[in-house]
Design a protein that fits this description.
The chain is of the alpha+beta class. The chain contains 3 helices and 6 strands. The chain starts with a strand and ends with a strand.
Length: 94
């Protein structure tokens, strides 16, 4: 199974599911062996988001997923395949 990455919207909620507090944005990264979350984007930063910047973050902060992505030749991002060759993003399906 390939690594999946999805942009997400995080908010705190009470036990009834009602939002409470600030909303942040980020991503969730997972495969059949593990998962991790990162919520460092503000709504304004989402406008500057790129697959290339995400890939740089994965390389530096998610080495376990990085190794799997290199072996698979890419990863799923919000349902689209992102091809990685020689450690670089070369193709993004849209």
């Amino acid at each position: 199974m390939a690594v999946d990455v999805q942009l997400t919207k995080f908010s705190n909620c009470d036990r009834y599911g009602n939002n409470s507090g600030d909303v942040t944005f980020g991503y969730r990264i997972y495969d059949e062996y593990g998962r991790d979350y990162n919520n460092f984007y503000s709504k304004g930063e989402l406008n500057d988001f790129s697959i290339e910047s995400l890939w740089e973050t994965i390389k530096s902060e998610h080495r376990d997923f990085y190794d799997s992505i290199i072996l698979d030749g890419g990863f799923n991002f919000n349902g689209d395949w992102v091809e990685i060759v020689d450690g670089e993003v070369i193709c993004k399906e849209a």
